[in-house]
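Memo to structure team: turn this sequence into structure tokens by end of day. - J.P.
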Amino acid sequence: MRPVAYILKMYPRFSETFVLSEILELERQSVALHVFSLKKPDDGVFHADVARVRARVTYLPESTVLAPRAFAEAHRAVYQKNPRRYRTALRLALARRRTASLKHFLQAGYIAPVVDRLGVAHVHAHFASGPAAVALHLHRLTGIPYSFTAHAKDIYIDTVDRTELARKLRSARFAVTVSDYNRRHLEQLAGDGRIVRIYNGLDLGRFSPNGRRDDPPLILAVGRLIEKKGFADLIHACALLRDRGCRFRCQIVGKGALAAELRSRIGELGLGSLVELTGPIPRERLLELYPRASVVVAPCVVGSDGNRDGLPTVLIEALALGIPVVATGVTGIPELVEDGRTGLLVPEHDPAALASAIDRVITERAAGEALARAGRAHVEREFELTTNVSRLRSLFEESAA
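Reply from structure team:
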């Protein structure tokens, strides 16, 4: 099979371990990849697995103003190859009457000569926002079929242009999304577009139950410190647990815009000795921390701007490692966490219910372990990396053929 091009907003991105795992597994399955990153990474910390990726990465100039010659030369080459196709693509970009549309068109024109030189058979983007827009313009410029994976913010946030999202879905060879909840949402927009649900997979050889729980019990939460993660509710729940006399400590792993606000809330509630914001932790260190937890909590909420999680990777990882989980029933989470069978679900924005569920898992150890075992079995059936990436590879091969 000829190469597949991946278009990403930023590569590598610390929070997007699912993209990294997918790329590594595609390469293991002998798919040749070339990554186009619209931005250079700015996280300042990387997972060790990034070094295992063989694909070359092309970083686009982040400003067409600062690199006018590079963009002009690329677009001239595209125009000379097929003037009629280029004029049509440009007309469609300008018809949007938005600066972002023109920017994405210029970025696609920069990529086009590279994918032509590489003999790329298919283009895949992660996220239905900017990367998918660039893939659509690239398709118009070159005729190469494209697809994209839709996650959560890129399809639910209030600023999403539903008409433009529908256009991306209909023009794509197919679109992938990470939950059946998302699939149903997208099918309402797609018309005759093809929507395929493929869960984010895990390498279950690396994620296998092991280790010993901390004493006092460790409550672990992992994610960006932003509204949709619901960590303010978790901090409130920890105050309720303390007031009940429950023995525990809590670690919230991640970084984000709400760090100062959450830290202030911890201080106001007098939880400084019990709740810690650890900052971001590389995946290899997180794998050492997970088994020490008695429960992993994902108190996700629908944000004030409509933003929400799709199906948090942290929950898949926790269940794969045999750790009980407590979560809210937002979006696709109930497809993984079946209340009372593979974990416990509580309503969003309900710290009292969250505290009770955490307390139950910590105090009823045997029941919690039973939930975790059922969760591991569910992950083995539905979230195995090799199987799920094989489905994606087959879609690429079908498109290329």
